[in-house]
Specification:
- The chain is an all-alpha fold.
- The protein has 4 helices and no strands.
- It is 64% helix and 0% strand.
- The longest helix is centred in the last third of the chain and has 22 residues.
- It is globular, with a radius of gyration of 15 Å.
- The two termini are 22 Å apart.
Length: 87
């Protein structure tokens, strides 16, 4: 099976794979395993924090996510989803 991705996505995958000393296929398999919901049932908040850091979702500035959770869900996450739909 062949899957076509944009040049931007391909370059990003290539860079991540090189950083992790993996092939692109190994990287994608690892990413799919991380997103397997059935495997997350026993996940702790520390597990989710680790996944967020590995995915590059950390903030450059200290953020009190608990206080801003509603704002984040209503704005930043919605913007992220819109961006994914247009890419």
């Amino acid at each position: 099976m062949n899957i076509e991705v944009s040049d931007e996505v391909g370059l990003h995958l290539e860079k991540l794979a090189q950083e992790r000393n993996q092939t692109i296929e190994e990287l994608i398999c690892a990413m799919l395993d991380n997103f397997d919901i059935s495997r997350r049932k026993g996940a702790t908040l520390a597990d989710f924090a680790k996944m967020a850091i590995e995915a590059g979702l950390s903030s450059a500035e200290p953020t009190d996510t608990a206080e801003r959770s509603r704002e984040i869900l209503n704005s930043e996450y919605a913007d992220y989803l819109k961006q994914r739909r247009t890419s």
